[in-house]
């Protein structure tokens, strides 16, 4: 992504001064000894959100605080909190996803970085924002570039910002601006077609955590006593799920396993060890487990809006238009492409196992655990097999692969584009099994775009090798032309 103001061929000092003029005092201090210039400092980072430390080695900070990063490997970084003149205030560990490189664009309260349409709607339609609230984002779709998203008459409108070169941005071709800042300032005082004037910048929401604290990255078997339990959020065949808090600091979901007697303790630890290494913004973060006594707990990040299935069936689901439904599907396909590349098979992909956050982000849940927790139950109580989501080879021979996950993704697309409809309506499990074996496939749901139905039928090819892989599905969904419809 090329940013305004980043010109090639200038010195590091020039580039830093231009990117972040507000840090003039810091640059003066660093570059003052011209005769013997110090090694160029690492980039300066700024905090996009406030953060409360969960461990004495971590730094608490407020939005807008500045940092020099000493070690930037992994999700937790060693950093110095600094003043604008470069004086070090404190040293400690900070979560990397709360920081962004300080430059004139990322410091703007209205610039939200790379974000898709569904996320943008989720932010802008939150109760903390009003008509006129807006943000500028960089679209996730190939070749789209910057987009201005504005809340107007209780819906969100999206305007493509055309960037013709490094210093020319426009919505209307007759009105170019040298920077995004200038464009935004203009539409704060002049009317934007169909949306009025821009009001205040969209309020930001906290990002998810990948761990409870840096100390639990490697030590993730924690005592039950560190968690307090609140209301029950839901219940599945294998677990009850509660809202909870860790050390009274961080909200979590606590999944209490019902079938603990069937779980092999060592295999459970081995599997969790592997699952803990999987990190993706569209995968639920697995924080910890509690196994000192039965029932076992699995601690994950809390997703405020519950399962995608209940979300789509509820009042907010109906408000989602086709582009938003495409974006949800893109998020799931991206997480699944990541799992596919890590050779990790989900085995239970369905809208009930995708969760929706307060900011409308969709994250895939329950990945991997199916094999150790659910299969002993599937084997003994046949009726609990999720027949309607399972590929024929998984049902007949127990052959699971990324391509059997792709079949399930096709069923998930059906659930999404029918706002939580039950697949194969009117058929029971045995009928579905028999009919699918002889080539029956669901017809196109009403109002489902042709290209989505086409993807579904490709996912439901009889032979696994004839189905697309997740990376291809993600690319095809992403390159759809729905961003501005
Ligand atoms: N991390 C979470 N944050 C918020 N709610 C959750 C979370 N995990 C689960 N839930 C809620 O608890 C419910 C039950 O989840 P659970 O995974 O146990 O069962 P399920 O997904 O409905 O079915 P299955 O047993 O096939 O997984 C979900 O539908 C959801 O509403
Ligand atoms: Mg589940």
TrEMBL record:
Please state what the protein is called.
Answer: Tyrosine-protein kinase
Sequence similarity? Belongs to the protein kinase superfamily. Tyr protein kinase family.
Instruction: Check the record and name the SMART domains matching this protein.
Output: SH2, SH3, TyrKc
Q: Where is the Protein kinase domain?
A: 227-485
* Keyword Cytoplasm listed: yes
One Pfam family from the record: SH3_1
Domain annotation SH3: ranges: 40-104
Where, subcellularly, is it found? Cytoplasm
Q: Which GO terms describe its cellular component?
A: cytoplasm
Enzyme nomenclature, EC number: 2.7.10.2
Q: Which residues does the record give as ATP binding sites?
A: 255
Query: Which molecular function terms from Gene Ontology are attached?
Result: ATP binding; non-membrane spanning protein tyrosine kinase activity
**Keywords from the UniProt entry:** ATP-binding, Cytoplasm, Kinase, Lipoprotein, Myristate, Nucleotide-binding, Phosphoprotein, SH2 domain, SH3 domain, Transferase, Tyrosine-protein kinase
Q: Which reaction does it catalyse?
A: L-tyrosyl-[protein] + ATP = O-phospho-L-tyrosyl-[protein] + ADP + H(+)
Domain (SH2) spans 110-202
PANTHER family, sorted = TYROSINE-PROTEIN KINASE (PTHR24418)
């Amino acid at each position: 992504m090329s940013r305004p103001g980043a010109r090639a061929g200038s010195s590091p000092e020039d580039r830093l001064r231009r990117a972040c003029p507000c840090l003039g005092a810091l640059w003066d201090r660093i570059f003052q000894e011209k005769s013997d210039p110090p090694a160029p400092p690492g980039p300066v980072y700024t905090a996009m959100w406030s953060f409360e430390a969960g461990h004495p080695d971590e730094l608490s900070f407020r939005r807008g605080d500045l940092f020099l990063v000493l070690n930037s490997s992994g999700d937790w970084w060693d950093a110095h909190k600094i003043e604008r003149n470069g004086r070090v205030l404190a040293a400690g560990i900070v979560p990397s996803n709360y920081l962004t490189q300080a430059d004139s664009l990322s410091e703007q309260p209205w610039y939200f970085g790379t974000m898709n349409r569904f996320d943008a709607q989720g932010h802008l339609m939150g109760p903390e924002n009003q008509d006129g609230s807006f943000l500028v984002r960089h679209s996730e779709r190939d070749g789209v570039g910057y987009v201005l998203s504005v809340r107007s008459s209780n819906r969100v409108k999206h305007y493509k910002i055309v960037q013709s070169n490094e210093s020319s941005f426009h919505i209307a071709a007759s009105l170019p601006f040298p920077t995004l800042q200038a464009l935004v300032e203009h539409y704060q005082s002049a009317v934007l077609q169909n949306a009025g004037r821009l009001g205040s910048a969209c309020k930001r929401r906290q990002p998810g955590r990948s761990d409870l604290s840096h100390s639990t990255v490697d030590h993730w078997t924690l005592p039950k006593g560190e968690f307090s339990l609140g209301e029950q959020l839901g219940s599945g065949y294998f677990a009850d799920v509660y809202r909870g808090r860790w050390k009274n600091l961080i909200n979590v979901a606590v999944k209490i396993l019902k079938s603990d007697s069937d779980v092999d303790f060592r295999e459970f630890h081995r599997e969790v060890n592997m699952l803990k290494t999987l990190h993706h913004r569209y995968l639920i973060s697995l924080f910890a487990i509690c196994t000192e006594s039965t029932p076992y707990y699995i601690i994950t990040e809390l997703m405020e809006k519950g399962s995608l299935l209940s979300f789509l069936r509820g009042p907010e689901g109906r408000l989602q238009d086709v582009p938003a439904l495409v974006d949800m599907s893109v998020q799931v396909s991206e997480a699944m492409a990541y799992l596919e590349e890590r050779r990790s098979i989900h085995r239970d992909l369905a809208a009930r196992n995708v969760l929706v956050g307060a900011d409308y982000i969709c994250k895939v849940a329950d990945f991997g655990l199916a094999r150790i927790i659910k299969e002993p139950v599937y084997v003994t109580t046949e009726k609990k097999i999720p027949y309607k989501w399972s590929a024929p080879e998984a049902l007949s021979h127990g052959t699971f692969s990324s391509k059997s996950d792709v079949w399930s993704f096709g069923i998930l697309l059906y659930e999404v584009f029918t706002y939580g409809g039950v697949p194969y309506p009117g058929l029971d499990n045995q009928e579905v099994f028999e009919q699918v074996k002889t080539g029956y496939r669901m017809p196109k749901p009403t109002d489902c775009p042709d290209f989505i139905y086409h993807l579904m039928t490709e996912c439901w090819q009889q032979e696994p090798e004839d189905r697309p892989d997740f990376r291809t599905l993600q690319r095809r969904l992403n390159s759809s032309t729905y961003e501005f419809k």
